[in-house]
Amino acid sequence: MSAIVLFDGECNFCDSSVQFILKRDFKEYFYFASLQSDVGQQLLKEYDVPAGMDSLILIEDGTAHVKSSAALRICKHLAGGWKLLYAMLIIPSPIRNALYDFIARNRYKWFGKKDDHCMLPSPDVHRRFL
């Protein structure tokens, strides 16, 4: 069984997050697609994700999880102490998402936006990009 992470392909912070996941996903549980890709757009429609959602999205077990819920559910599958962050799901989502939204609103200003080129995955992880 596997899950799909949809990410903003224009965002440097999001690209770094994908790299972070890849380095800690030893079981190769996650596959990836940018929100801007044809695959990403199709998955957004298929899972009825609200229009304009540019959050990190995790598709797992037939459900689309967004924002902090997606990030914490991803942590559950990462190697090391990152799994412990999953326990933060007990915090009500409006509180968790307030911090998530603050970072999301400022991500281009703080981390920049990609130019006309995007990251090309190395051959060993290329197959995990949809």
Automatic annotation (TrEMBL):
<dbReference type="InterPro" id="IPR007263">
    <property type="entry name" value="DCC1-like"/>
</dbReference>
<dbReference type="GO" id="GO:0015035">
    <property type="term" value="F:protein-disulfide reductase activity"/>
</dbReference>
<dbReference type="Pfam" id="PF04134">
    <property type="entry name" value="DCC1-like"/>
</dbReference>
<protein>
    <submittedName>
        <fullName>Thiol-disulfide oxidoreductase</fullName>
    </submittedName>
</protein>
<dbReference type="InterPro" id="IPR052927">
    <property type="entry name" value="DCC_oxidoreductase"/>
</dbReference>
